[in-house]
Structures are given as C-alpha cells and as structure tokens.
Amino acid sequence: MSSKYLLPCRCGQQIAIEPRQAGETVVCRCGASLHAPRMLEIMALEPAPAESGPPPSGVGWGWRQRTKLLGVILLSATIIAGVILLLSRPVSRFEVLSPEEVQRNAHKLTPSETWDHWQWAKRGLDRRTDQQHAAAVVRFRIWLAATVVLALAGVGLIAVGMTPMRGGGGHRVKDGGQDVG
Known about the structure:
This protein has helices at 39-43, 63-87, 93-96, 99-108, 111-123, 131-162; strands spanning 5-8, 14-17, 25-27, 33-35, 46-47, 173-175, 178-179. With 181 residues, the protein is an alpha+beta fold.
C-alpha cells in the first residue's frame, strides 16, 4: 500500500502528497497553489505508483549526515592533535633542572658568569634570551591556534548537520503565505 497519493492540478499534472500534508498548501510545477484536502479525503485519492528502482535498503545518508560525520572526524582529529601538541610543548632547560642541579651548577660558575646570570635574573626570569626556545614557543602557539580553529570548525559542521529541515518533502509548501521548503 502506497503512503503517497496523487493530487490533481488544473494543468493536468498530478502531485504526490502524503497524508501528513493534509490542510497544507502545495505548489505545483506549473506554479498553481493547491490546497491539500483533509486526511480522509487524501486517502480517497488515487494512490501514487511505487517508485521504480531497487527497494530502499534503509535510510540513505543525506548531506546533513555527511556534514555531521565530517565534523566529528575533524573534531576528533583536532583533539588528538591538541593532546599531542600539548604533550610536546617546548620546555626551557631551566624548567627541567632540579634545585640541586642548579646549586651544583652555580658553584661551578666563574665570577664573570655569575655576574651575567645576575644581570639576566634582574631583567626577569620570564624574559628569555634563548632565541631557539622563543622560536619554538611561537611555533607552538601558531599550531595551537590552528588546532583550536579547526576544532571550532568541526563543532560548526556538527551544528550545521544537526539543524532541522524546514518544510516537507520535495514539494514547496506554503505556510502562512511564505515558501518554506
């Protein structure tokens, strides 16, 4: 038994409608607006022929499902990349030395080296002069920002895939005088 029925238009064409469209205004290909009858009257119309081709094997993937899948893949990949990035962040040699090692190294310094370290400490411990470390921190921050942007893009794709469809079926339906589908 078909769940679609043929609504005749004055142009001679027939529009396939479903019982859930009862009471709605349906637009024919010729541009004429047709009022779908009540559900019992729809059931009295001629049933639409079954669609030709192979029988449906289940619900097919539309662009929404593909968009959600792409978003999930992108978000998962960026989470993994972010974890790897954070685990391999640049670490200064001063952050890995124990206090005992610092004490031992301080006793080995010459007076001029001690003076240089004192001048460096006066500028502030957060102001490094190590150019390689500074360049590594800049690269780390760029990659971290790119990872965050890609993660947000993944979330956006998931959100777009989750938005509900407007209107019904393949026909344009008027609701309150405006086209919805």
